Amino acid sequence: MAEEYKYKEMTHKIIGAAMQVHKTLGNGFQEVIYQRAMEIEMPLYGLNFNREFEMPIWYREQQIGTRRVDFLVEDVVSVELKALTKLEDVHLAQAINYLEAYNIEVGLLLNFGAKSLQFKRLINSKFNTV
Fold this sequence. Notes:
The protein is α+β, with helices and mostly antiparallel strands. 36% of the residues lie in helices and 32% in strands.
């Protein structure tokens, strides 16, 4: 199975929950409002998750710090939320860097700040199964 499709059903559910949140709230709120709404919506889609999940950041097999991922869904998909009028390349790079630092295979970048929900599915090309 191609890696892009490995978590397709799960990412589809997450995006569906995000679309419902955006449809209900619209744009213009702070990121934390969308986080709280997603925390209510995702269980309705049968998704288990941790919010503000603290994960270690490693460099050459040494832990050099921690960072909180907005949501870790089913212990395998990282979800980063933004509430910006426009996603920039730096936000995409940041989300990919988190996947690599956490060694998570798949992630989503969701932006609630635009008129329509923006989302990007991300694949960690450096994912290590060991």
